Amino acid sequence: MAVKLTWASAFSAFLAVPVLSNLSILKDFLIWVKQDLGPWGPLVLAIAYIPLTVLAVPASILTLGGGYLFGLPVGFIADSVGATIGATAAFIVGRTIGRSYVISKLKNYPKFQAVAIAIQRSGFKIVLLLRLVPLLPFNMLNYLLSVTPVPIGEYMLASWFGMMPITFALVYLGTTLKDLSDITHGWNEISTTHWVYVALGFGVSVAKASLEKALAENVEVEGLLSPSMLPILADSPSDVHKPLIVRIES
Questions:
Q1: Cα separation, 150 vs 233, whole angstroms
Q2: Mean pLDDT across the stretch 27-50?
């Protein structure tokens, strides 16, 4: 029996591949970077963010590793650039071959409706605030934003600035570790992110208030839409900056 392979199903399977998700593999990768790559280490570390981010695999271990291996400022620069190019790669995948898959998942994120509407008015500001405030799952945010009208240039710049605080905090934490094993033992993704947000609590609170205010400004517009409709990009490249109302079946 023939099986029809669509872009959506292929992309879904692609995301399911657990590349670099095993902690021991990440540890071995960091050891390799430290022992064998010399001055090329920071560049390779930055590039490693691409497959991790495209596969929606948490990358905080790489960020901690950058701090441990290279310290400040080199580790921060490598991690900051890597996080940005990784987020951009995922954004491009979501805007092209993964678009159907992303659209099929929109119904799972009810908070995204207000975000998508607000981005039409203030793309850079909303993306920046979303990077500062964990309103939506961080690893899916790149894909969710890919189907909004935000230009890729604004997305990249806002993401770079918005991810700087948490990147710096994780890199700094990495500089305090005594051994690479500390990165993969007792520093799981949830606990690490939790304590970083506690440390950045005041800044996150301010950003959260700003984001809520920005989303509230679009309440009247949002009220014109049914809950099952979202403004996303049209398929045609000529309409790339024009919002299209698409019904998402519940």
A1: 9
A2: 92
